[in-house]
Every structure is written in structure tokens, then in C-alpha cells.
Amino acid sequence: MTRDFWGGEVLEELVSRTKHGDPYVRQIARALLGNVEKGSNGWVRRVMSLPEMNTYNSPFEKALVLEKIMLHYILYEFWESVIHLGKVQRGELAKVKSRINELDQPEWDKVAEQITDDIYLRVAGRPIQTHRLKRYESLIEKIVVPLLGKNGSEIVVADAGSSSGAGSQVARMQGLPLKKWVAVDMCDPKENLSWVLTCSIRLGEILDGRFRKIIKNMFNWPVEFQFVKGDIENLPRKLLTGFADVYLAVFSYYQLKNPKRAFGQALKVVKTGGIILLTDYFLPGKLTPESVITPGRGGLLTTGVWRSNGAGRAELITSYLWADTDLSKFI
């Protein structure tokens, strides 16, 4: 294996993903590594030379976008049909399920050979936008409701680094008295919805039908939901007014160049007594915005909870260690 591949860091991420718990992730990673071995004849090296790939701040993100390019090729037509019709057609679903079931390792290797320049140019540089309902369900049920949901007052939530309305619907289902859910991100999900679906939905969820819940959520945002286009390191002034009871950032800070600055912005978003929840991988023994690290680099998947004291200050009041990336249970 070539060790000088982007300093070896992206290569190491791909090798790490060959040991992933999801068999499809493992097979895609092996197919990508096989394409790397083709040298200049492989598309993986060509896409990595694009200036658009500098959008991603870490080797993990670059390895992940290579995987999503493969998935986008497989699923693009299916997602476009869902978006166009506003529903899932039984025949189209049967076809895509059949295709997924055919995808053993040799088939993934063939898929890698079929990726052309026009395919990866469609998505290179786009943020990896994931709308995982389970994460919101766990955060709201296990943390937000116990902290704020018992007093009967309606709550305003700021969701930083997400363009999804997923959390607002989950909040209602969990019984959170929600007044408004404001999602802030650089990308409007409606602009690139097929890409968002590719990033959000796993192949196994298409096969077992769980993807329908995500589709329903994304196509039917509640009236309490508001999307604001903005950079969470430099938020629009209208958000810096201490309007929110809760500030959430779920797998957002590891992508930032200046997480400390983003946290300073969060302090201006929440009201005095409001809480800030950061869910990300943190260096062991440290729980500050600056100690957030790239997933897979040895950190601990943690939700830190801070309470605003006003005047731009907050104190860490508790933290939670998670056993998996869907935040399904505590350690």
C-alpha cells in the first residue's frame, strides 16, 4: 500500500473503516483502497486533488466523503424519484433493495471502477449533512427533558451546525413543550436533498424500512421549525440576543476551525440560566470546546452540559459518555 497518500492520514482513515461495525462501510472502504492502488488511473486520487476537497478540515471527513460519493452513485436515482414524487414508490424501492442485496465485495469493487469525473464533481466540497433521528431522541429524552422539560414553560432550542427539522419533530414526540426550534447551518437541506438523504440514511435502513421515518420527518417540518443560514463561528446578529433556552451542537464542533469562537457565540445565543450541550469526541480527561477532536482519533464520545451564568460565562454542570454514534445508550 502506498504510504505517501495525502500524508498517509486519509489512507489510515480508510484502513480504519475496513474494521467498521457496518458491513457496507467495510466493503466500501476496501473498494476505495483498491482504487487507490490504481494510482493516477484511479478516481480517488483525482478527486482528492480538487481544491473543493479543502472544504473538509480532517482526514476523517475526507474519507467519509469518498464513501458518500460511492453511495450517491448507487442511490441518486432512487432519492431523486422520492423527492420528485414526495413519496416512496414500491417498484423503485424493490429495485434499489435488489441492488443493495447484490453488493458483495466484488460488486463494490466494480462500483468503484464506474465512478467518473462528472459523478464526484457533483458532490465534492459539499458538507456532509446527517439527520440522525435517534441522536435527537436520546439527547432530548435523556438530557434536555430532565433538565428543562418539567417546569411546563415552552422552550426555544438553537440547533447549531444542522439544517434539519428532525429535532423539532422528535421534541414534540418526546413531550418537550417546544415554542421554537431554530436550526443554523451554512447549507439549506432543500438545495441538495438527494445528497442529504445519501449522507443521512444507511443502506441497512433502506432494507429494513427504517428510512421511511426519516423521509417523513424531512418532508414534513413542523410549524415550530425555523432554518437560518449562517456560520456557527460567526452567527447572524439576530441570533446573538440570548433568545434560546437550549443550544445544541451534535457532531458539529470537530468540523470547525475555531471551536472556542463558536462556543463564545453560543454564550450569546442562550439566555442566562440556559444550557449548552456539545456532543462530540473529546480528548480524555478534558471537556472544553478546544478539546474536541476528529472521530476515530481516540477521543471519548461525550455530551458536555454547560449552564449560562450570563455576561458571557458558563459553568460545566455535568457530562455523559455514549456507547455508540447514534447515542442510544450511556456507558
From TrEMBL:
Residues 222-277 form the Methyltransferase type domain. One of its GO terms (molecular function) is S-adenosylmethionine-dependent methyltransferase activity. SUPFAM superfamilies: S-adenosyl-L-methionine-dependent methyltransferases. It comes from the Bacteria. It holds the Pfam family Methyltransf_11. Transmembrane segments: none annotated. This is Methyltransferase type 11 domain-containing protein.
